[in-house]
Amino acid sequence: MSGAREPWEAEEFIAALRALAPRYWHDHPFHLRLHEGSLSKHELRCWAANRWYYQRCLPQKDAAILANCPLPDIRRHWLDRIVYHDGSAPGEGGAENWLRMAEALGLTREEVRDERHVLPGVRFAVDAYLTFARTRPWVESVASGLTEMFSPGLMRRRLADMRTHYPWIAEDGFAYFTSRLTVIAEEGKSTVDIVVRHSNTREQQEAAVAALAFKCDVLQAILDAVDYHGRVAG
Ligand SMILES: O=C(O)c1cc(C(=O)O)c2c(n1)C(=O)C(=O)c1cc(C(=O)O)[nH]c1-2
Fold first, then answer.
1. Which end of the chain has less neighbouring CB within 10 Å, N or C?
2. Mean of pLDDT values over 53-63
3. Which atom belonging to ligand 1 lies closest to the Cα atom of 129?
């Protein structure tokens, strides 16, 4: 009676991916505190310094996807992500904009770059994401990035709420989010297309859903560590 299970239709598959939205980090207690304006400067700095570790590992994660992908079309397309974060020259790109956010919060570049504030839980979570991308089939790693499907609304709200509740943050500090918002909607859509096109069996489709669930856990774990630290350190 056993036999291969039918793959989902594209719409069912996309619905299974979207059904993970409640596991996204939009309503993590730390994000709620960030949005309502109740974080101290110390907590905001801790958030920025720790998220730096995530930001700086993203190009390595994307490079791992490139390294594992045998398809030139995908590689050509994916390469843009590395350039987006690293910039095409020093002083440009997403990582640079994140450093500007950290500076606007009162950190020095040096203390962000040397990772002295990175908490063990954040390091473990981000390293797990990197290891996932290095060791799993490339399409699963692409699927793990689909958390971005859930992020534009959150990012828009974050920008508005931070401008309102933390008016001392200079506008230059928000460059990361303003520039990210212009690319993210398009990126999310083309990433779904890639995952749908290249997950052909039911097993591959389920592995893609599991990859996205894993990534939601990575993001939750990052904020758990930052939130806990803020609460115990005051
Ligand atoms: O601010 C956010 O809430 C948020 C979330 C995510 C995400 O959902 O993984 C990313 C980003 N920002 C982001 O800026 C970014 O460059 C990014 C890349 C990726 C990824 O997994 O490849 N996620 C995210």
1. N
2. 98
3. 21
